[in-house]
Batch of 2 targets.
Target 1
Amino acid sequence: MLDPVFLAQTILNGLSVGCIYGLIGIGFCVIYNASGIVNFAQGAFVMMGGMITHVLMQQHLPLIPSALLAIIVVALAGVVIERIVVRPLWDRKATMFVMILATLAAQIVIERLTLMLVGDQPKSIAVFTDLPPIKLAGVAIGYQTLWIMGTSLVLIAALGLFFQKTLVGRAMRACAINREAAALQGIVVSRMLAMSFALSAALGAIAGILVTPTQFTAFNVGTPFAISGFIAAIVGGFGRPFGAFLGGLLLGLAQALAVFGLGSGLKNMAALSVLLIFLFLRPSGILGSAK
Amino acid sequence: MTTAPILEVRGLSARYGEVVALRDAELTMREGEFVAVLGPNGAGKSTLMRSIIGLANATGTVRFRGAALKRDPAAVAAAGIALVPEGRGIFGPMSVAENLQLGAYMIGGRGPDYERRLARVLHLFPRLKERLDQVAGSMSGGEQQMLAVGRALMADPKLILLDEPSLGLAPKVTAEILESLALLNREGLSVLLVEQKAPLALKLAGRAYVVSNGRISAEIDPKEITSHGDLARYYFA
């Protein structure tokens, strides 16, 4: 018989991991909007966020400075990838296919470097608040879940304010709408591209830092996260940051319900089914694609 | 009195793939001039504009107030040249106010200077004042063109380039926009206007160039043009 408490717990867990997918999906959208590029190195940023925080905490640095340093380092790594991998191809007007391959290659290089530096064993970091979960009508709400959901909501609100209220945010939106017209206003489009990589990388790093205490991180976790974030972005409407977040929630929920109803082996099938359903029935995604 | 050159184009050529769209264009504009660029559809007028601003793959030199211009639209904007592109290029999903603010991106989109420029644009195009919070893409074509011109003016340019501003607009709206430009020109703004509707442009311009088959084929004095036949002679020379 269906256990409503277990179902509620499943939904909560699904939404929690969905927030992570959503943040990664937003990262895809931010770069795509600024440049038209689909950056498959996005998963590497997630892995790096958790991994660098782990390494710094191993050096007895407290969580908050470790996390902040990790976010800054990953944001800088995003700019480096933009400068040495994406920009030269972009300047040569390389095709989207070439760009995707180049970012995938960057992802593999980062993975292998991480393997060489920290080995192949999974790493984790302690939960941010080490207290027993809150019980609500039989449902256990872990503090890390609250951290994930709370931080995601704060980030969504902050990103909304950034894109709607600041001149730089508006300039990034202008680049997304019409890059040529944006340049005519004196907006240095290539600078916006670098900023979009920094922002996306920082979002990926935050997602990685948030999720690592509930799972683990290893040199090769980036690709599955990238795929989930990419699906979230497509489901939400590619180029729509808020849509990507909704897509992430939907994806996390679908995966959790598939595990609940069909078994854990069908988790990935659920994710791909969600993608296929949207591609067949609503290819523009929940909010409609931005371009 | 002859003023100093504001824009000097020398040997400007541009191609799209194998197709040469512009050959060895030579053009000079002086401070405060209103110059028209005329020619039939596909003659190379827009390519000339795009080449000047750095949007087309072009060779040759462009000097602005004596200094060589970089082939970079953002640098060209920073130098003091604004282009109102064909098709307007407004940011449709954004509000009118956001579009205007982005026009003043180079001064940070705020401050007393920004407020002064905004007041001037809204005085020039009062219809924009009523629609500041409206999504730009939902306005009529004429209002969008006013916004495109207004946004360009927010940069406080020394030279404004307009590419077919009358395209798809009612004659009355076009006249309203061009009248505003004539007013700004009298206040000292240099204007380079690309226009297919030659009679409109010739009414305002002090001088005109004719572009035909990718070449600047003639420089004419608008006073000499009294009939369509006169113009056709230059177009098909």
Target 2
Amino acid sequence: MAKDLCKTLADLKEDEVLAIVQEKLNAGADPMGILADASRAMEIVGNRFSKSEYFIPDLVYSGEILKKINELVKPKLTEEVGTKKGGKVIIGTVAGDIHDIGKDIVVFMLDVNGFDVIDLGVDVPAQKFVDKIKETSAPVVGLSGFLTLAYDSMKQTIEAIKAAGLRDNTKVMIGGGQMSDEIKKYTGADAFGKDAMVGVSLAREWTGTK
Amino acid sequence: MAKEWVEMTSEEKHEALFARWMAPKDPEGNDLKFQSPQAEEAFKERITRIKDAIQMKKLPDRVPVFVTPSFFPAYYAGITPQEAMYDYDKCCMAFKKFIMDFEPDGNLGALVPGPGKFFEILDYKLYSWPGHGVAPEQSYQCNEGEYMKADEYDALIEDPSNYFTHSYLPRVFGKLDGFQMLPALTGILEMYGVAVNFIPFGLPPVQATYKALFDAGAEALKWMGAMGAFNGEVTAAGFPIIAAGFTKAPFDVIGDTLRGTRGIMVDMYRQPDKLLEAMDRLTPIMIKMGVSTAMMAGHPIIFMPLHKGADGFLSDEQFKKFYWPTFKKVMMGLIAEGVVPMPAAEGHWTTRLEVMSDLPKGKTLWMIDQSDIAKAKKTIGKVGCLFGNVPSDLLVVGTPQQVKDYVKNLIDTCAKGGGYIVSNGAFFDQAKPENVHAMVDAAREYGVY
């Protein structure tokens, strides 16, 4: 029998992982089962990252391996992959700022921790955040920014959320290279997350997830 | 010069470059005429102060102070980054006002904005800049991508110049498309068949590329004319520019603009040997880039922006295997030619400090941002001069008193025994001017030895 897919993927052994997946598919295994194993493995990857056993390259590489698994499994899929059951979180890099590395790490960590992440990308206008909150009723919004210029964009975004009457039901966290608790106060956010793990625990707290 | 350059020791070269920095020339090669004897004296005092801090042999008269912004001078002077990039006179006016008003011991000149029209002429795709992908009031930002493909390491290793010409440059500059059709110049050898090599230059796409290059060259010259005049003016007013030019750590060369962050991270797993070989190949090229700029400018300091080795971006093992060895080789190569590497460790580099301390004393100048500054002093600070650590957020939302307190604490922590320069920690766009003043004032007030 093939080796444990979950463990092999969590250990980032790409060649072995793909061999196992191929073997399973050839043997007629349920593609949904393979994806479930992969999803558990990604959770372990996230866990190791939060314990500083893994670093950003490990996250990126695990994502690359996952892409390849999906390519193998996709043609065999007969049913739709279910949507996430966790709380909704809207994430984006604020207007005028096109940096995405930090944002993508937070998206990854929220995703592997079961959140339904709506990633608006970079250079996101305030109105787009507002529209997305209205559309999805997401209780948590994460604003990312790398530049000092993002301070004002974050502030304006939060003001726009407030002006739309959505602030009371929306918790806002900020993060990025030159952010701090002082900038949290300046922008009117609810919290500053110094890294992706803090982002996850804030989202947990705010959505009432364990 | 009494001794030929090639005969000098590294130490003599180092001193000779400082001596050239201290004795600036005008464009005709004559001694630069200072605005006044006071300006000349101030210029020499400032360089001596910086030199003493770097060399760590004797204490400077006081802790020097740098102000090293990104687009702050534009905002401060009331112009947009777009204006700073397209109107060279306005750009110089803004940076001059900034230097005259804040009077730092060291500044970065006015090169940061760069020539907007030049980027337009060549259809530069690597960056979005004001009016081209970002708003006029924003700074330019890099569009990361896999401009070098995963299977192109062999081509890069085999012939970096050829790879840049045929593959990389046409991808980052739309108008350099024609370069893909160029012949290998090493095929041009003798009468027989020589003309065949020149056929591409007769083809419309190649000619269009050359036309764009001529225009771009003319624009770059125009810009450099403005910058040269600016440099002369601020130097004549007594204000030294800190760095002559830049070079990079080989890991960043590949990870920033060739393979991109994701690309290089995956390469560490899928093709580590190719990555290591490519970085070795780039090492002497990066040394030469720094040394030749320093020699040409007659200035000892070469800036090295550090990026993908920051805390979290690599594991400790990956940092030691992939980032540090060739980064160190580049620094040692610069030092051997008398040049002072100025690595800028923006963001957090606390976990790297110990590894990066393995350097000769008094030969490097480190910009430290949010790394643990006390630890930096105990590690890199034992062998190299540190500057920075005044946080960007404090400069934007703090009060002048908070900035002063912060700087006082920094001086208490770092200035003992020399080797520290007060400065902002990251190249900033925004700040309250009164906070920047407070930083400079605090260095003068608390930094006297």
